[in-house]
Automatic annotation (TrEMBL):
Full-protein interval shown: 244 to 607 of 607
Function: Catalyzes the first step in hexosamine metabolism, converting fructose-6P into glucosamine-6P using glutamine as a nitrogen source.
Catalytic machinery residues: 359
Stretches assigned to the SIS domain: 40-179, 212-354
Gene Ontology BP terms: amino sugar biosynthetic process; carbohydrate metabolic process; fructose 6-phosphate metabolic process; protein N-linked glycosylation; UDP-N-acetylglucosamine metabolic process
Protein name as annotated: Glutamine--fructose-6-phosphate aminotransferase [isomerizing]
GO cellular component: cytosol
Length: 364
């Protein structure tokens, strides 16, 4: 049931504050100000390496998680898409945790990669949305997302719920490895708990974003750029746009622009820049200015301070609330989802059932 929404995707975008809160409920102990994890029958302190494997949007959640695991827990992370990982003969040493991320829990390549890791002595953890799925059944550690059924082929709420679980796991890892004080953990809990409100504030810009869709819909190519965790968010924004609007879109690490893609820039290629205030802001903005100097037309997604500092000369800006860096990816997911959605609606595509795509890719 779509309720009063036109498409399942739209409904699922709007459900995010609620389902992320629902998911966080099982990973945060608010009274004790601690992260909560299901019981583990292995020793998390003995894990020396994490291998993250997934496909599509779930892979981008894994890419964000790599930044977090490395930064907070100082644990080495290997990351790959399942279709490459399973055929590249990866080095899997004892003491490794293999982490699989999947909405459906049935994606063929991810499941095959899981079985390969299991056969090679890895401890298996899964972040899945379908608790009865094959991946859920075969895991040593099941970390469910509570997004509820996701019907739209384009993944939205499952993604942000995955991010919520992965952030909590990063904090737990950091804590058991002695890299995070109880006080810092309490801070993380506070910030994560603010994510639903941040996402709600982002949803408040839906009408502006809908108006902006006219700027993007006529384009043949669109670029998305960001740095740090906003790099995977750029990839995710581009994937959302291409899968439902059929416009060619690419996500790039902002610093890679001058290594090739900037050659594409002219006034017909909209560039979506994800640049929250923070240590990487100036660097991203200088890449944005290089685009503008070549006639590129920019939509800047940032917070009020970022827009005040760099918004002039942009074709449009989308203002996000100023939130803690840890929850930025959850909040910035919303505008890129909404932009893709409104462009697709303008183009009249089948938003929930885009051509050539299946909700769950159970064949190779
Ligand atoms: O069920 P999974 O999370 O394993 O699915 C992975 C991808 O097939 C999926 O995320 C796909 O990329 C979506 N259509 C993206 O919106």
């Amino acid at each position: 049931d779509k309720g009063n929404h036109r498409h399942f995707m739209q409904k699922e975008i709007y459900e995010q504050p609620v389902v992320v809160a629902q998911t966080l409920k099982s990973y945060l102990r608010r009274l004790e100000n601690q992260v909560a994890m299901p019981d583990m029958d292995f020793d998390l302190t003995a894990i020396h390496r994490v291998t993250i494997v997934a496909c599509g949007t779930s892979f981008y959640a894994g890419m964000v998680a790599k930044y977090w695991f490395e930064r907070f827990a100082r644990i080495p992370v290997d990351l790959d898409v399942a279709s490459e990982f399973r055929y590249r003969d990866p080095v899997l040493e004892p003491g490794g945790l293999a982490l699989f991320i999947s909405q459906s829990g049935e994606t063929a390549d991810t499941l095959a990669a899981l079985r390969h890791c299991k056969a090679n002595g890895q401890t298996i953890a899964v972040v899945v949305n379908v608790p009865t799925s094959s991946m859920a059944r075969e895991a040593d550690l099941l970390l469910p997302t509570h997004a509820g059924p996701e019907i739209g082929v384009a993944s939205t709420k499952a993604f942000t719920c995955q991010l919520a679980v992965l952030a909590a796991l990063a904090a737990r890892f950091a804590r058991v490895r002695g890299l995070m004080s109880a006080e810092d953990e309490a801070g993380i809990v506070e910030h994560l708990a603010e994510a639903p409100a941040g996402m709600n504030a982002a949803l408040g810009h839906d009408e502006d974003i809908e108006a902006m869709a006219h700027l993007v819909a006529p384009a043949r190519d669109v670029l998305y750029i960001g740095r740090g965790p906003d790099y995977p968010m750029a990839l995710e924004g581009a994937l959302k746009l291409k899968e439902i609007s059929y416009i060619h879109a690419e996500g790039y690490a902002a610093g890679e622009m001058k290594h090739g893609p900037i050659a594409l820039i002219d006034d017909k290629v909209p560039v979506i820049v994800l640049a929250p205030s923070g240590p990487l802001f100036d660097k991203t903005i200088s890449n944005m200015q290089e685009v503008q100097a070549r006639g590129g037309r920019v939509i800047l997604i940032s917070d009020a301070a970022g827009i005040a500092a760099a918004g002039e000369g942009c074709m449009a800006t989308i203002e996000m609330p100023a939130v803690h860096p840890l929850i930025q990816p959850l909040v910035y997911a919303v505008p890129v989802q909404l932009l893709a959605y409104h462009v697709a609606v303008l183009k009249g595509t089948d938003v929930d059932q885009p051509r050539n795509l299946a909700k769950s890719v159970t064949v190779e």
